[in-house]
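The methods section describes the discrete structure representation at length, but only in general terms. What matters is that the chain and its backbone geometry are given together, residue for residue. For illustration, here is how one protein appears when written out as sequence plus structure tokens:
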Amino acid sequence: MSFIIGSERDEKHISDSFIYFAGAKFNLVQNGNSPNRYIWLHGDEQTARMALDYHIRHFAGLAFFIQNETREIPFKSTIVDPNRIFSRNGSYHALKKFKPGWQRGTLKQALDEIDSERTSFLDILMPGGNGRLIAVHNNFRGYNVKNEEKRSQRTSIKPGQNPRDFIICTNEKDFEKLSTGPYNVVLQSEIPEKDDGSLSWEALRRNIRYLNVETRLGYLTKQKKMLRFIETTLN
């Protein structure tokens, strides 16, 4: 089961704790009492970690930092992408990806375990009230905003911005405000037919204001500016 142990820091308004989900440890850093939540999910995306570490010390909220050095996390006798286990269907395909053959009954047991821990994890991760959930990611394999256009309901692509730096949001009012700024923004407010287990779709199912701040790996200043832009633009 997931659990938390708290510890205080000397830094003003900052406290630390941690939680486990699917065998992965997440350090939690809280600043103040804002309902806003932040998460860094992929251990190989270090620019995103540094951007979020900086951001949570300047803006209120609760930030989740995965304690892992690679994209996938070890789980039982395989590895899984932590951003593909936020639904049972996504978890099924994530568990089968690197281990196609499971002994009879063991796959169901693994899925049941993830289901149980997911509930506890999301109860803490998901913001209350009108809070936002912001994920931070980096890309380094050519992935860019054009890959997201076909599953987006609205887009605001800026000619002066690198297509690998962009914001995904699930709330139309957030999109309208962010699209007036300098950054690439897309709106994804409809759940796709194929559920890949990503956090964005679980947030959308729960009617949570979700945003993903995506930049090229190594572009720390850019990602810090994009996070600040979201904070100062959205209510």
Observations:
- The chain has one domain: 5-233.
- The mean pLDDT is 93.
